[in-house]
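By convention, each integer encodes one residue's backbone shape. The lines below illustrate.
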Amino acid sequence: MRPDTPAENVDHTAEAARLERTAGLYPEDAEALLLRAAAHLELSGDRPTASTLYDRLLSSTADLDNPHLVRALKASNLWEYGHEAEARAIIEGVRSASPQDPAPWVIVAEALESHDELEAAHETFTEAVHRLLTDVAEPPYATHPLLFGRHRVRRMLGESHDEWDALADTVHSLPITLDELHDPKRVWSLGSENPAELEAEILRLRAELGAYREALSRPFPVAILHWPATELTELLEAYPSLSAEYPTHETHLATIESALRELASSGTPNLGIVTGTVPSYEAFAASELSTPADATLLPQYATTLAARGRAVAWPPQSQSACWCGSGRAYGECHGTTTA
């Protein structure tokens, strides 16, 4: 399915089946592909089958990149078709694990919120922002839904603004304020006969839709291919002609950073980095009925990895680990102004 395919034109059952088949071909990407397949099954209404995919991932012998995310999605799905007790138990397990990734927190908190467990949702959002954002100068993009969700629930509970709500206001970029978007009285305006109230609500809904579209666009970044040192050595030993593309590993890393900075300065959004491996690249070349020595395959390989959910957003936060794998903070490595 193309990223720009209208949702109403998607055969979710067929798309889920396609993703399952693809996961069989690319076991290293099975987690991302099966999570997308489960999402399509949920959208099709086949929630029990979606649960089997979550169970398949959790029972796998392979290490998962984000087991807490899989559990959170399973809990949210279970609650939607009557398995409340099991869902609650999983949610408590996710909270106790205190994951560093904001996504599981958002999913379990929103599951509680959608079932009118507002106090529990508020506690979950609050615990997450304290754990992930205390002493963080600039909240990463991925944590924004935590701040927005907490703000929304607090408006529903009638709580007054606090410092985290103020932070949510600062990272909110839409023309309509969070207080307006999260106003509990908005639901009543939908039944109003006043044209001005209805027009105002339409503007708010358009703003929300714009935010959702922006969020949905992020998994499909413009991605640059990165080879770790050991992989690049193996690649060039097997295919020496590619040394014209990669004179040295240091040059390769510097080229990645400069290319991404140039794209960013030109206004290109959703930039990312994908990390290649020689076996994966060879399999991709075989699927294209070509030789890995063909340098024109490299950008196609990068795009394919990004479409399979392998891209990491660029740039990292200044204090986060650098994308190059050096173990140093990005701000002290490739994030310096002289990089």
User: Anything to note?
Assistant: The CA atoms of residues 290 and 297 lie 8 Å apart.
